[in-house]
Structure formats: structure tokens, C-alpha cells
Amino acid sequence: MAARGTHGRRPTLEEVAARAGVGRGTVSRVINGSPRVSDRTRAAVEEAVAELGYVPNTAARALAANRTDSIAVVVPEAESRFFSEPYFSGMVGGVGMALAESNLQLLLTFARGEREQDRLAAYLAAHRVDGVLLVSVHADDPLADRLLQMDIPTVISGPRSADEPLPSVDTDNYAGARSAVDHLLSRGRRSVAIIAGPLDVYGAQRRLAGYEDELAASGLSYDEKLVAYGDFTEEGGRRCMTELLERSPGLDAVFACSDLMASGARQVLREAGRRIPDDVALVGFDDSVIARHMEPGLTSVRQPTRDMGRAMTGLLLDEIALAAEGKRSSARRGAERHLVLPTELVVRGSS
Amino acid sequence: MAARGTHGRRPTLEEVAARAGVGRGTVSRVINGSPRVSDRTRAAVEEAVAELGYVPNTAARALAANRTDSIAVVVPEAESRFFSEPYFSGMVGGVGMALAESNLQLLLTFARGEREQDRLAAYLAAHRVDGVLLVSVHADDPLADRLLQMDIPTVISGPRSADEPLPSVDTDNYAGARSAVDHLLSRGRRSVAIIAGPLDVYGAQRRLAGYEDELAASGLSYDEKLVAYGDFTEEGGRRCMTELLERSPGLDAVFACSDLMASGARQVLREAGRRIPDDVALVGFDDSVIARHMEPGLTSVRQPTRDMGRAMTGLLLDEIALAAEGKRSSARRGAERHLVLPTELVVRGSS
DNA sequence: CAGTAGGGTGGGAGCGCTCCCATCGGTGAT
DNA sequence: ATCACCGATGGGAGCGCTCCCACCCTACTG
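Predict the joint structure of the above. Result:
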């Protein structure tokens, strides 16, 4: 438990006011950039602020103004996954970038497990942030609904379903998957397997749908022997690849819905004596560090994670402003509350 | 800019007190776990808290108590590096773990560039955290000294020099380097090159020292043609390896002071037609994702990053407690303020 | 020249909590 | 029975800020 801080007392508004020979209200106006202050007064105050090295006490401000000037990025995952996936890092980078222009602070929070989630919910309820960015959400995630219910401005990084009530930003998983499959087909592959993600993640559903539709568009029939369901982990990729080789030994291409799963698949393919890309072409999703360092380089679908982070931040700031005016965000038109950003196929040696 | 929050008003201490038929002070005591409350009263208060769904307002608490119950992890790096290195993820994981037992919140902050650092310093000065964990510090980092000067409890993740004034936690870079070199020598290598890190990082100095001493201990003389200085990046590793091959074409082993540099070195070795490990053995430092996915797997010196994070948190909590009592931390004995944790060599196919 | 806008300003009233002092019984000692 | 004492409790006094109302003075208007 923390105790009383003792780093030397800092000057208060009152002291600045005294020094500048004005009232508290005036100093507050200057600090907050109100236009209703004469230039002379403003200059005097600014000088006093500089001389005293005044920095507003945020706790006092938060208490009086009922806002915190900070937003939280909530990751309902263990940190390990968070750090191993470039998806998150790009996202957080984009958020940071977007925030740099405002004077909001970024708070990064993890919530692995139920107990942690409760703690976090209490924390958020304690009114410590103005808004929340929820990243990587599963369909049955209770936190999203709790936030919605508590009426805390929130944006999520991928809709949980087609009719997501919360504003969201997502990549075009469907088109990304189609481009990957199209690429494989255009390379002459005819038996394209997929290692799908867990279907309680909406984005995983969309990728699978893209795979199916692209095959259909090319006149190839959907063969469920070519479909395996992983969990986005390397181990899952290994398991799926083993299954697929057993069921469809004749496959000549694999589209793994995450780079980590692709990496697992690669190991199994190697052990089975299949050469990449000669015997089997491999494509991943995410374009992570792993993709670049794999042997051979892994062709992968890149998501514009930085832009996503930035877009989410923009939406959230809107939400917060709306909340301030007392309007519920549901008053807004749906379309502009759900952004979908394009993907890009990065071709490397594996296909 | 954020605006006034409007999520429905939450109950206050006063309301809980009224409901429980007691005074404000008593409720406060219960909330904060003071022993000076009778069991009957405590039960009544707890019931009222539950019924009203009371959650203390942290801003008010921070203002009144002059503490925030949160600490910041400050990373003076761009996020990209932060996320690509497992060093950080383990660290943050350890901190999170240590914090789970207390009721402190974790704040993650980046400060790339001077302007950001100023902003951050102001933020910290605004008294928004009880303490700071400074990760990855260069010798000339101004932030560390500023924190010291502002008298804000701080712990850093690697001393900047041998007489670091701030409490610190570090890995045994020296011993780690020695174990890497010892391993190479025991495998019969006789011409071991090193790709060192930037010498303004204390840890990089220690690794170089370990390399030199281990060679000396084995009766091998130090040959400066076998030493190149990188910057911990992949590109730097490439450059260094190129240099080394030019200067010492006969080398049969390379100790790279980071996995990323090892990866760069590997590329150059490949292009030069040297087989790993047959012609040249390669060892890295960090044991990152890259090490596991390299072809062949990279032998690497692992740091106990999780434990480091935990240890740093422990030291910081002590610091905060001391500050609360008004004592300066310098009053403590030096030894227990500088922890050094052991490394472990993970052997893979590259050596 | 009185009358009326305003822009500019000062400062009271909180925001919800912690701290601490005063108070109130009850207990054991004298 | 009297008194000192202690645990349990109530509530005043802020913490440093924002909000907002009242006020002042200058600059027009009619």
C-alpha cells in the first residue's frame, strides 16, 4: 500500500494568483486557454507560472471538473500474448500518436482472468478515465457490456458481431482473406487449406468467410476436409497442420489465419518432408516479426494497425465529447461509428 | 480535449454513512481497513457499501491523501522497440504480477524524443503517480536525474554506471557474457568475435568486459580485430558482421550482444557462404522470439525479466514507503538497493 | 448625458475524500 | 464512589481546482 507522498510541496493556483496579482479564476482561465482574458493579464500570469514552476494538480482538477484527461487501453489478455503479437504494438503506437496532439494521457491495462476483470471494472467505475479502448474482444466478453452499461465512452477494436452496439474499428478481414487465397490460386495452387481462428472471434469468422467466397468465385468447391480450427497459437497451428495432412495429404497450399499458427504449421510441414513453397505454399495473417524472420520469409496479410489505433482514438474522442454534451452515442448514425480499414498482402518466399 | 464526464452519478462516502447510520469518518475507516472499528459497525457499513455499489472516488482520495495508488513504468524508447524486445514484455509482466497483490495500478508510458520527455516530466511532476520504474536507460538520460531531483521514488532497470544513485535491478551481464564465451570455447572454437552494444549503455560495457575476461581466463589473448560495436539493431548487426569478416576472415564464432544483432549477423554469414554452426557458431543475448524462430535456433543468454520486474516493484514499494516517512532513500545501505539477477544460457542449434 | 451592453475579473461554493481532534461511554484502579 | 484512561465514533477543516455568479469599468447607443 502506498503512503503519503512527500516530494517537496509544489506551488498552487492560489500562489500563482498572488504572485501575478490577479484572482484564482483568472489564473485558471489562463491555464485552460480561455479567450476571456486580456493579453496583459495573460502575460503576467504566464510569467508567474514560469517563475514558480507551477504544474496543475491533476487530482484536484479531476475532482473539481469531473474528468481525468486520460483514457485507458484495456487488453483482456495475458501480457505474454499482448507482447508477442505485433497487432497490439501497432495499435498502441497509433493511439499514442493520436494522443500526442491532445493532452490526454494513455493508460495501459491488462485484465487476465475474472478477478482481474472485476478489479478493472471497479477501477474504471471509480471514474479514473474519461474513456476506454477495448482491444481484442471475444464474443462473450463481459467487460464490453459492463462498460456499455456503465455508460463509459468506449470503442472496441473489432466488432463482436455484425450488429455491434459499441463504436468499433476493424480491418477488412474478409477482403484480406480473399486476397490471400486469390494470391495462392493465382500461383497455380488448387488445393488450398485453411487454419482458421476461433469462431468466437468475429474477425476469425470473416476470414473464414473470405476464404470460402474466394474459392467459390474461382469455381472451386468448398471442402471441409481442408478446414481446421486453431486458437491463434503456435501449438494450435501445429495441431491443425497435422490434422490437415492426415485428412488431405494432397493439399498444395495453406492459409493460416495468424502468423503464429503459420509458424506452427511450417514446423509440421518440415517434419513431414514438405518443402515450402515448392510442395506447399504458406500464407499467414498479421505480418508480424515472425513473418519476416521465418525461413523462407512468410507471405502474410498486413493490417494497418497503426491507423487502426489512430482511428479508434478519434472515435473515442468523439464519444467523450458527445457524452459531455449528455447525448448518448446511439444517437449517431451507425455507419460512421464502425470503421473498416483495408489490408495489404505482403508477398515473401513462402508462396 | 476531454470534457465533463456524465456517466450517472455514483454514491459518495456521505451517502454510505447516512445509509449505515454512522459518520463519514467511520465509513472511511472501514473502507481503508482500519482496525479501530467495532465488528458490528463494520458489518453495517459493508452492507451499505454493497447495497449502494459504492466505489471510492480516486481523484478525491488522491487530493485529500496526497497519494495516487498508482505507479508508472516509463520506457524512454519508441514503442516499436519496446514491443519487439521480450526484455520489456517480461519486465512489465513481472511488475503486473507483483502489483496484483497490492492495490496499485500500473501506468505504462512511452517517451520517445525530447518533447515527449518534457511532457512526461510535467505529468510526473503533476503528482499523478506515487513512484516510477524507469526501464532501459542510457547513460546520458536526463529523465533519471530529473526524477532524482524532483525527489520522486524511482527504480531503474539497469544502473547507468557503477555508482548509480538510484536504486536499481539488473541482470548479471558480466557473468552472462562469460557463460556465452565459455560455451563457445568449450565447443572448441578458438577465434571468438564479439558484436558489442553501444558503450553508453552500462550493461553493454559489462558484457564486453565479460567477453574479455573469459578469453583471458582461457589463455586467449584479446584481439581488437575481433571486436565490433553495434547499436542493438538488426542493421547494426549486419554492418558489424561485415566488418568482422573483412578484418578477421578466420573467425569461427560470434557472440552478439543482442538477438537482433545476431539475426543481422546471421544474414551476412549466410550471404558469405558460412554455415552455422559448422563454420561459424553464433550466440545471442536476450533469448527473444527471434532466437526461437531463427534457422537454426539461436543459442542465447536469457535474462530473468519477469523476476526483474518483480524485484523492481519490490524496491519501489520500499522507496515509496520510505518517502512517506520522510526519509531519503540514500539513508539506506547501498547494497540492498542494487540487485543483480543471474542469467541462463539457452543452447540451441546455432552453436 | 443617462442607459445599456459586454468583456474582464474576483472569489464563493463546492467536488469527495482523509486527517485529526473532540467527544462519549465504559473499564479498571484507587 | 471517583478518576484517569482507552477504544470507538462523529464531524470540522481542508486538499487544489473548476464553475459560475456578481461586479466593475469601458464603450457605445439613443
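Confidence is low (pLDDT under 50) at residues 1-7 of chain A.
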